[in-house]
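User: Hello! My lab partner asked me to get a predicted holo structure for this protein. The small molecule is nicotinamide-adenine-dinucleotide, SMILES included with the sequence. Please write out the structure tokens.
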Amino acid sequence: MRNILITGGAGFIGSNFIPYILDRYSDIRVINIDALTYAGDLNNLKDIEEGSRYSFIRGNICNRELLEFIFKSYDIDGVIHFAAESHVDNSIASPEIFIETNVNGTFTLLDVAYRYWMESPFKYRARYLGVDGKLPRFHHISTDEVYGSLGDDGYFTEETPYAPNSPYSASKASSDMLVRGYNRTYGLNSVITNCSNNYGPKQHHEKLIPTIIKRALSWEQIPIYGDGKNVRDWLYVEDHCRGIDLVFHRGRGGESYNIGGDNEKRNIDIALTICDILDELRPISYSYRELISFVEDRAGHDRRYAIDYSKLRRELGWVPKESFRSGILKSVKWYLERY
Ligand SMILES: NC(=O)c1ccc[n+]([C@@H]2O[C@H](COP(=O)([O-])OP(=O)(O)OC[C@H]3O[C@@H](n4cnc5c(N)ncnc54)[C@H](O)[C@@H]3O)[C@@H](O)[C@H]2O)c1
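Assistant: Hello! Below are the structure tokens for the protein in complex with nicotinamide-adenine-dinucleotide.
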């Protein structure tokens, strides 16, 4: 068995990834460490039974002793690191916890992983720089927000200089740099993926798409920042899981890979699309569009993100499969049941 430590597995992307990876590989055992902050929800994992292939540990990635204990007890072969404070608005109101978890937590995890793998029995005694897809491997999940903001055209590539604009993106950029530093200095076999905005089932209702659906269903105003023309690329979470799987298993050590959905949308168009779907699926006496209301813009709001994932396509043959139309329809149906 390969023992893979997944951090933040009770959150949105992690809880989609765990069933995906367990279904796909019968020789993988997942150890999920999650602090269960407001964003973590064990209901997201209720279909997975604890047993020989899955264990849950409630704990904080800043806790070095706990991490050392987990690495030793489970003889961890690989890490896929999702745990983070992930909401930009919260980072504007209270940045400290973003530095604590995203920067210090990532540092602690990296350091414990590196020391365990370098000091444990001979199978791990080597420098892993550039060894493609070999365990032990540290996979860091990051964001396209580290690249800053784009104008009307252009795309972020892996060579785009980092220019984060919010405490959230600055903390993710810092953690990416630590991962890079551990690779270049110590030869830790790391990979980083920088993805665009994810959507799909199990996302916390603070995020844009669940907010729109939740507000609409309770006939509350649907708040849209500024003029609604900020553009994001939208990646269906299952496509993201496939991308992570490929990079974790076959990506080149020390490299970063962008993962995008080929779905650039303005925020206002997302809201309009969801309202139209709800008009069809859950009709009321007026159109849900009437609930949309523009609110004061977010401070430092990046105008446009767009991602060039051609490296991932060229090297590992990954392309997104889900169209926005089908992905958003599946998502709305999922939230209709939940809310
Ligand atoms: N959701 C997106 O659109 C998106 C886009 C790009 C990158 N990312 C990145 O992907 C990763 C996962 O994002 P998500 O949307 O699933 O986030 P999420 O907020 O839904 O989940 C984060 C999880 O991490 C856990 N956690 C938080 N602090 C912790 C700590 N100190 N120790 C242990 N666990 C802790 C939470 O309890 C939660 O279960 C994050 O690193 C995020 O930066 C997300």
